[in-house]
Amino acid sequence: MTDAGKKKAVGLPLPLMQGLHGEFYGHCAAGRLSFQRCSDCGRWRHVPREICPACSSWNWSWEQSSGRGTVYTYTIAERPMHPAFAERCPYAVVVVEMEEGVRLLSRVVDCPPSELEIGAAVKVDFEDVGSTAAGKVLLPVFRRG
Amino acid sequence: MKDKACIVGVGATGFCRGEGSGKSLHGLQLEAALAALADAGLRAGEVDGIMPFPNLGTAEGFAASLGCENLRFATTVNMGGAAPVASLGVAAAAVSSGLADYVLMPAGWNGYSGSRAGAIVQEMTASIPGGAIARDFYLPHGLVAPPQWYALIARRHMHEYGTTAEQLGAVALAMRKHAQLNPAAVMHGKSMTMEQYLASPMITDPYRLFDCCLETDGAAAFVVTSAERARDLARTPVYISGVASAQPYPADEITGREDIFRTGLTVAAPRAFEMAGVKPADADFAQVYDCFTFEVVQQLEEAGFCARGEGGAFVQEGRIELGGELPVNTHGGLLSEAHVLGMGHVVEAVRQLRGEAAGRQVADASLGVVTGWGDFGDGSIAVLRN
Fold first, then answer.
1. Cα–Cα separations (whole angstroms), residue B282 to B292, B299, B304, B367
2. A16 and B205 in contact by Cβ < 8 A?
3. Which end of chain A is more exposed for a tag (fewer CB within 10 A), N or C?
């Protein structure tokens, strides 16, 4: 991919490690999947937000998830729509419903797309995908079981 | 606001792929605007309101090019493909309250020869409601484009309600069939069978190639004025009887929605029908924003044409085809006419209600529904009558 005539290789899009999003990924880099939890009504939330959408409280803390969830839905990308993922096709993008009630977008790294099933149990793991100026980026991914 | 405003002019450019339109973004939209003004019997100087689609930028440059010297109302609705129908509501409010007399909405793009879907994906996080969320939580995992976002919802629907690939195919086939009656449709002359649909390559499972809308060059425009002013114009006015738009919750994030099927339309549809004083079953046709096949199924459910979970059965056996219970997208829609950012659905609804739809005319059409769908499920709906 270094030949001048070929397409320039495109790196994986990485999260900008800023604000609350950066804090979320900071926990991931330390090997913890953590979500915000409202200190007043007790609701877990993801994606990160300034206040609790349920009770408007400003009080919250990062709390570690059990890491366990189930597959809620998925799609299998067969055609690349972004050059960084071209070589990975086909790959499945999965919405995981966590025991805490929140859902997040991820991938199940040890399961061929054809074997994915809604409702299947999965457990979090982390994948090192590179670095930004703010440090290493680890994405929360999942494994079966 | 019921029946206080009407659409008095519509116009469109030709739709194409291949060599493209040969016009700039502005040029395309100027051509459509001139066609809509000519249809209404208005001069550009009489237009005092412009609602540009977000890709056109501000209204000033367009008004200057058009020769619209009396601009006093300019605003843009940022709801992606839901913008045209939502703009009908804003335009109706503007003309019925006296903020403007004649509101023009042009929209279009070089969706084939210009920036195509694949090419703009990398830049698009800045332009969608969930900008930073998509950038930080979707893109890194490879969820990068609209067919993938919505495929997640389609897959869940198939799981919960047993919606099948053949039912999605029935939507694609109905749109393609209607395009055979529309000489302006890009897919005119190209019929399709269920076998061909099922054999089309998978793009993002469960979406195959023929579940996805066309990428085309083209533009369209409409003009809205008050019911009083419409009486002085040559055309049969098409009244805006009910109109509403709304956002899903949360609007900036798809995966965490407590009810993943609840979209903006879920909230907007009952309001529009209530304003119009009619029920979904009263509609003679529906032009439903068909970016992908499942979005038609979902919107038919959320708009109340059938119960949630029954959309798959509702689209089968010709029920949404001309001659069926509810003809849907009689022009061929985004799937088979052209992708004009939702404008084509408004133009077709007006033509049907004027009795100008030639070989695809719905007999005695007097009440029609048109919907818009944009971004992460923003919804808009108008109930129109002649």
1. 25, 17, 11, 7
2. no
3. N
Chain A residues inside the 8 Å CB shell of B152: 73-75, 93, 95
Task: Indicate yes or no: CB of A82 within 8 angstroms of CB of B142.
Answer: yes
User: Strand B207-208 relative to strand B202-205: parallel, antiparallel, unpaired?
Assistant: antiparallel
Q: Which chain A positions have a beta carbon within 8 Å of B256's beta carbon?
A: 45-47, 102-104
The ipTM, to two decimals, is: 0.94
The span from the CA of B204 to the CA of A75, in Å, is: 6
Of B117, B140, B142, the CB nearest to A91: B142
DSSP annotation string for B180-225: TT-TTSTTTT----HHHHHHSPEEEETEEGGGBPP--EEEEEEEEE
pTM: 0.96
CA atoms within 13 A on the CB side of B63: 21
Inter-residue contact B340 to B15 (CB < 8 Å): yes
Q: How many CB atoms lie within 10 A of CB B41?
A: 14
Picking from A88, A126, A92, A90, the residue whose alpha carbon sits closest to that of residue A108 is: A92
Q: In a structure prediction context, what are the per-residue pLDDT tens digits for chain A, which is 145 residues long?
A: 344 444 456 788 999 889 999 999 999 999 999 999 999 999 999 999 999 999 999 999 999 999 999 999 999 999 988 889 999 999 999 999 999 999 999 999 999 999 999 999 999 999 999 998 888 999 999 999 9
Q: What is the DSSP string of A26-56?
A: HHHHTT--EEEEETTT--EESS--SS-TTT-
Phi, psi (5° rounding) for residue B368? -135, 160
- CA-based nearest distance A93→chain B, Å: 7
- The answer to whether B138 contacts chain A (CB < 8 Å) is yes
Q: Is B42 left (phi over 0), alpha (psi -120 to 50) or beta?
A: beta
Say whether pLDDT at B233 is over 50: yes
Strand duo B238-246 + B202-205: pairing: unpaired
For residue B184 the two structure tokens come to 């302006």
What's the pLDDT tens digit per position in B315-338? 999 999 999 999 999 999 999 999
Residue in chain B closest to A13 (alpha carbons) equals B140
CB nearest to A103's CB, from B140, B203, B256: B256
Is residue B223 within 8 Å of residue B47, measured between CB atoms?
Answer: yes
Q: Which residues pair with B381 in a beta bridge?
A: B244, B371
Dist. CA A87–CA A31, nearest whole Å: 27
What is the DSSP annotation of B315-363? TSTTTTSTTSSS-B-TT-HHHHT---TTHHHHHHHHHHHTT--GGGPPT
Q: What residue type is B362 in one-letter code?
A: V
- B383 strand-pairing partners: B242, B369
Residues 219-278 of B with CB under 8 A from A: 250, 253, 255-256, 260
The pLDDT value recorded for residue B130 is 76
